[in-house]
Amino acid sequence: MTSELNLDWLISVDDHVLEPPNVWVDRVPAKDRDRAPHMELDDKGMDFWVYDGKKFPSSGLSAVAGKSKEEFSPEPLAYSEMRPGCYDAAERVKDMDRAGVLASLCFPTLPRFCGQLFYEASDRDFGLVCLKIYNDWMLDEWCAAAPGRYIPLVLIPLWDPQLAVKELERCAAKGATSFAFSENPEPLGLPTIHDPSGYWEPVMAAANDLEMVVSMHVGSSSQVPKIASNTPFMANLTWGAMRTSGTMLSWLFSGLFQRYPNLKIALSEGEVGWMPYYLERAEQVLDKQRYWVQRGATFMDHGGSTGVDLDTLDIRATFREHIFGCFIEDHHGIASLAEIGEDNIMCETDYPHSDSTWPNCIQTVRNIISHLPEQTQYKLLRGNAERLYRFTPAAPPVLAGA
Amino acid sequence: MTSELNLDWLISVDDHVLEPPNVWVDRVPAKDRDRAPHMELDDKGMDFWVYDGKKFPSSGLSAVAGKSKEEFSPEPLAYSEMRPGCYDAAERVKDMDRAGVLASLCFPTLPRFCGQLFYEASDRDFGLVCLKIYNDWMLDEWCAAAPGRYIPLVLIPLWDPQLAVKELERCAAKGATSFAFSENPEPLGLPTIHDPSGYWEPVMAAANDLEMVVSMHVGSSSQVPKIASNTPFMANLTWGAMRTSGTMLSWLFSGLFQRYPNLKIALSEGEVGWMPYYLERAEQVLDKQRYWVQRGATFMDHGGSTGVDLDTLDIRATFREHIFGCFIEDHHGIASLAEIGEDNIMCETDYPHSDSTWPNCIQTVRNIISHLPEQTQYKLLRGNAERLYRFTPAAPPVLAGA
To answer: Is residue B295 part of a domain?
Structure first.
């Protein structure tokens, strides 16, 4: 039935948009323009966002597309000095075309990875207005600028699960299939996914019913890994996916996947090479240690709590059905594909952040996966993303000179 | 030159001794017997250690040898109910013989993994007396009970690096080749290995000069991994090696291996399956992010600090020369052997803790490694441990019925 598989294009499930200056000011009444997120210029010509009485300069590391690694810098960068693909949907598509990126899911920048900005705002009613505007802009402007080229990712009001459900329903009706959530809500001052009061249950139920993928970007706990107070920065930076491993284990043992069989999570920019070890370890811990934990023995203040029926929990089956990861240049992860499962890994390009492989995205991925069967390559390049996000991409563009 | 390799025996570089009741009371003057660590009985016949005004009951999970997993319990256990191999060196050798364990390196129990007990004691002068007694007992009684069957591990006074150097010299002269150190001294209230005042430099210099392996057991920071406050206990338990990965990265980027070329560290009970991901990630972070870090840019309060010359740091070469891990049942780690290096992995049996594979130690390891060349198997079973700890084991015993 299928013609030859096209392996020249990938779908990136983790990129980043630097919101263009008009997102909010175009959509609020004139009276609210000064209190909505808007850009101002300092006397040196550097632009920065202003919202809720605070200034938010950009980080140069969030807009490195087109720069060499020697030029990377965390210093603030004016929009005028950025590659337009950072903030312009049509320009981004040109950059995607150049790099073999058929479609892209973008996380927000000013609102932070799961919309912490609006949760932390002093006026949450207006925060909700601004959050909805982000979602509308993402759906109606960014994604609509190039149909079939962008997978929308929306935000929820983290501070009110009932309002979050309404926003999920509203966005699902407009075509969204995924929302951003925190890898660990507790450091944000929010209940965990294990909260005994069931704080997040309405959101999880809605995600289940609406088939909205829970996308959790590394760092969406607003936590920076720190091995010790004066550990060399490079060690902490390397350690980043430690957070994602904790997220995976939290969800695996949470019982959420047993209660909500349609619930699926995407671990974004967390890589995958650490998964096989932790999956195997989870099986061993479950096998050997569950008896005394189940008897409710207290041990090191943990109280033997657990959110799932340990006797029936199947770590591998739960993982394969519900948990998805993605990779940029994770050779070890791909070498471990059989242990992780070829249906659970997607690729990403992290444009325009400092881990990005742009403009060599498709070449980089193909170099890592070219030894695999073509069907497997196709899954990693795009098939898994299409299935998970229920997304039908545009036909690959025919490029001039191609 | 070599005859056929004997693959029927392993050297375990991570086991545990429950100190017998006589360790300290036999070695202090009569007047100090009540204040030295000693055992008392409660009115139910349960024994517990007493030291420095505190009671220390045992944990059943630290003495499961001979029990089925269904029987594991963290409840205190009397010595009389433990398998004698837990605390008796001659009985332990019988258990080792039964399980194919040629030699064993044991971590302490009452003093904790790196001697925290004496560091925390109200009277450190007497704490040092007790610490030296532990070392003498380990060398003169435990190890001497079966020459060539035990690799001694000694403790240092963590609170005084100069005294620690003296104790290292004293123990090295008595044949010790390794000492216990903390995977992360900061949570213990001690300076980190990166401390700019050079707190640990005398200890590291002595370890280098005396070729004393720095053995760091998982949990020797006295930290229990906790993803969030109410994360299911099984998730936290599975996450344990997260600490070891932080330790490995701290040391890799510390500059210590560049300053002390003979320094070698052993990561004990941390498994190895997570290593390939973090080694690859370290190389990528070093490749892409070092330029802006070197320019001293401040980013997220870390200040771009680093303890090593990033331009000359070779992650793989540094790892292979200086860092050693061990495994119990880590199939993924062994599947990744080529990425980690067959000279850097040893095996362990964790006797008599709840991860132990006893009495099936040799069978378990052989099942995991039997597909490898015999020379490689030999390295993993014992060759690497012999080389790292400069240890010559006894000839394998000829067992009745074998």
So the answer is: yes
pLDDT > 60? residue B265: yes
Contacts of B282 in chain A (CB under 8 A): 234, 238
Strand partners for A213: A178
**B224 → closest Cβ in A286, A300, A330:** A300
A49, A297, A307, B394 from A158: Cα distances, Å: 22, 34, 22, 63
Q: How far is B271 from chain A (nearest CA, A)?
A: 9
Question: Would you say residue A52 lies in a domain?
Answer: no
Mutation target vs B (from A192, A221, A277, A323; most B CBs, 10 A cutoff): A277
A222 in B contact zone (CB under 8 Å): no
Residue B402 has what pLDDT? 53
Picking from B71, B228, B254, the nearest residue to A250 by CB comes out as B228
| A235–B253 C-beta distance less than 8 A | yes
**What percent of chain A is predicted at pLDDT more than 90?**
92
| A238–B184 CB contact, under 8 Å | no
- Does the pLDDT of residue B374 top 80, yes or no? yes
**CATH number, residue B309:** 3.20.20.140
pLDDT of residue A376: 98
A393 in a domain, yes or no?
no
> Tokens 């394998």 identify what position?
B396
Query: Please, what is the average pLDDT of chain B?
Result: 95
Q: pLDDT (tens digit, 9 = 90+) per residue, A347-364?
A: 999 999 999 999 999 999
Nearest to B250 among A228, A253, A308 (CB): A228
In a domain, B4, yes or no: no
Question: ipTM value of the model?
Answer: 0.96
Q: Print the domain residue range for B224.
A: 10-388
pLDDT exceeds cutoff 60 at A297? no
Helices (H) and strands (E) in chain A, counts: 16, 11
Whole-angstrom distance, CA of residue A180 vs CA of residue B285 = 26
Q: Total structural domains in chain B?
A: 1
For residue A262, what are the CA distances in angstroms to A14, A212, A268, A272, A290?
22, 9, 19, 22, 26
